[in-house]
Amino acid sequence: MASNPNSLAARDIASLIHPYTNLEKHKETGPTIMARGDGVYVYDDSGKRYLEGMAGLWSTSLGFSEKRLVEAATRQMEALPTYHIFGGRSTEPSIELAEALLKIVPKGLGKVLFANSGSEANDQAAKIVWFYHNAIGKPLKKRIIGRVRGYHGITVFAGSMTGQVANHIEWDLPIGGVLRTDCPSHYLFGEPGETEAQFVDRLVGNLEALIEREGPETIGAFIAEPVNGAGGVIVPPKDYFPRIQEVLRRHDILMIADEVICGFGRTGQMFGCDTFGIEPDIMTVAKALSSAYLPISATVISEAIAEKITAHAGKIGNFAHGFTYAGHPVAAAVALETLRIYEERDIIAHVQEVAPHLQARLRALAAHPLVGEARGVGLIGALQLVTDKASRTVLPAAAGIGPLIQARAMERGVIIRASPDAVFVCPPLIITKAEIDELMDALSAALDDGL
Ligand code: PLP
Description:
Elements: H1 8-15, H2 23-29, E1 34-38, E2 41-44, E3 49-52, H3 55-58, H4 67-79, H5 92-104, E4 109-115, H6 118-135, E5 143-147, H7 156-161, E6 178-181, H8 186-189, H9 196-214, E7 219-224, H10 240-250, E8 254-258, H11 272-276, E9 282-285, E10 297-302, H12 303-316, H13 329-344, H14 347-364, E11 371-377, E12 380-385, H15 401-411, E13 414-415, E14 417-419, E15 422-425, H16 433-448
Parallel strand pairs: 3-13, 5-6, 5-7, 7-8, 8-9
Antiparallel strand pairs: 1-2, 2-3, 4-10, 9-10, 11-12, 12-15, 14-15
Helix pairs in contact: 4-13, 5-13, 6-12, 9-10, 14-16, 15-16
The site of pyridoxal-5'-phosphate (PLP) has 16 residues, from helix 3 and helix 6.
């Protein structure tokens, strides 16, 4: 693939360690080098066009050629290209972005801490849980409950809250301080004959038992994505979150909603919290906050928490936490412009208009011999791949089926994502119905090719 040592591909292989890549295999296959973008499409360096059915990494909500974001970045670069918000300094974009966020987040949330990535926002959420419990004189109430298949990032503590084996083995994670509870997929984890309502009862009972066994006085928070993304696009049963949250409230355990994928319209409402009836004490956002044009994330906390940590910082003389680039003015200006575009173009109404088409096309594939379940909400969805519908599993002979379907779709000019036994779609929010057809036609043809 990379016989010319001066080619970009050869230089890539010689110089880069790629995230989430089989590094040994990459030496043979080399990279796909993306060169430019236009709307929902990206073009590689040979000129081949791909419909980006994953919005990059579940993130590029406004597509790959939104001029207003480029202009917002340029304006801010020219005015003040960088500054920090430590020690009481501030910048107009960081103030305006915090205000704009607070206007749209669920009620009760009242202050914003900026960071640069989803992992950092979640790490920061955990640290706020710890600092807050010190502030209110409950220094033992620190452990955090994560869920099987939850994904919260890869920094040391976000990676520990993440509930995926691949992020733990060989990385010496999780470190202490994390408890784990169930994943709410009825299809994957329901017992034979168990109804969805019984399944939710069981999960709620398991959570209650875990809290009682470990001691509620040692547990500070519960973290969950409204819809698990990387863990399989798991859409929870309707009453799952209200029931879970009732247990948490009773034990005085904070709810952290990880909206890194779901935030800003993905599920058909502004936040996954709105779609699933979650009332978070802490919410984290990233990705679509800036349409992923620049790295920026935020941890949004309740007024009640903000009050206590402010008083505590006053008492000890400092709030000794913060990233150099937190609230970076250029990233903040781009994020602010992104939020303005969502409002002016009513992105939520657009998602509500086109999402039923994506969901209908996904559901139509449920009858396919290789599909066990088609699931999704808004503009995010998955096909659970099976080679044995009765046991809901992929037989060993068909291992690698997800990546195979993904590779075939890519040959057809469509980018989707795969796990060993599922494929995912999460297109830019600006996608049209015709583009949804192009995406789904390629996915269905890739399935029809069989194994
Ligand atoms: N939380 C969720 C739900 C995510 O999907 C991701 C990344 O995909 C993260 C957190 C971590 O974000 P980042 O990769 O920006 O650190």
